[in-house]
Design brief:
Layout lengths: L1 H29 L14 H27 L2 H4 L5 H32 L1 H5 L3 H26 L4 H14 L13 H16 L7 H7 L31
Helix pairs in contact: 1-8, 2-4, 4-6, 6-8
Length: about 240
């Protein structure tokens, strides 16, 4: 068990991150035409609209909440809020976002499983990644009562220390010894999602972040051809989206 524990929380994170980055780069380089979300918006538009909006709102809040909460050193927020108070804020905000995301993802999963037309046009990886995300959300919600039972913030500090150790290449699986099982399974499945990321429709997330580049993109100069147009009718430089 010690060997498995060390592998899962000292070695496995780097395997997942390596595949996540290198696999995404390889897919973009070799299979750009598969770099899409495979939308089926022509079918069951109402359910898709509600499910997609709720899912994306919830998952974005959870992603950035986990990132900031786990990777922010304790000394940054210690003058303003205690570890226990921060954990309760995380439980409350994460619980609301998790519930919103769970409802949205359940609608999307129900739509793909119980509509024959959508199911027949769905790839197995589409269904697989939705099921894995659904299970991950359930596990995350299961951890909430355990977090409330550890209101002193000790669990949050252990998880933060482990996550920051991964980022700084000084992992310490001993930080997670004695942690309740839902946390450990939640962490392992979360890392597995990063492992599967390049081989699923999730790669379109990169495109979402890539659109931020348009904020700093320089103007594109467009000029009309010299076709004998009257003076003053030539197009002026403009920004195109």
């Amino acid at each position: 068990m010690n060997t498995l524990h060390n592998f899962l929380f000292n070695v496995y994170p780097y395997i997942c991150l390596s595949v996540f980055f290198m696999g995404s780069l390889a897919r973009f380089d070799r299979d750009q035409y598969t770099w899409k979300s495979d939308s089926s918006q022509l079918l069951r538009k109402g359910q898709l609209r509600w499910g997609s909006n709720l899912f994306h709102i919830g998952i974005l809040f959870l992603f950035f909440g986990h990132s900031v909460g786990l990777l922010t050193p304790h000394w940054v927020y210690e003058p303003f809020i205690t570890a226990g108070q921060k954990q309760m804020v995380a439980v409350t905000a994460g619980g609301i976002a998790g519930a919103v995301c769970f409802v949205g993802l359940s609608l999307l999963l129900h739509r793909r499983l119980f509509d024959d037309r959508i199911r027949l046009t769905s790839h197995r990886t589409d269904l697989g990644i939705l099921i894995i995300l659904w299970v991950q959300l359930v596990l995350g919600l299961i951890t909430l009562p355990f977090s409330i039972g550890h209101s002193d913030g000790a669990v949050m500090l252990k998880l933060s220390a482990w996550a920051q150790g991964i980022v700084t290449f000084s992992p310490d699986a001993a930080q997670l010894v004695g942690l309740d099982w839902p946390y450990k399974v939640h962490l392992v499945l979360g890392m597995t999602i990063f492992l599967l990321f390049p081989f699923s429709r999730l790669v379109h997330v990169w495109s979402g972040f890539g659109t931020l580049a348009y904020i700093v993109r320089p103007y594109q100069v467009v000029r009309s051809r010299k076709l004998g147009l009257p003076a003053g009718l030539n197009q002026s430089p403009r920004r195109e989206s």
